[in-house]
Amino acid sequence: MGAGPRGERRGGRGLDDFDERAVQLVVLDLMLPGVFGLDLLKRLRAASDVPVLILSARNDSATRVRGLQLGADDYLTKPFWPEELVERVRARLRRPQLQRSSAVEVGTLRIDESARTVSVANRPVALTATELGVLVALARKVGRPVTRQVLVDELDAGREGAERTLDVHVSRLRKKLGDEGARVVTVFGIGYKLVGDKP
Question: Given this model, what pLDDT does residue 20 score?
Answer without folding.
Answer: 61
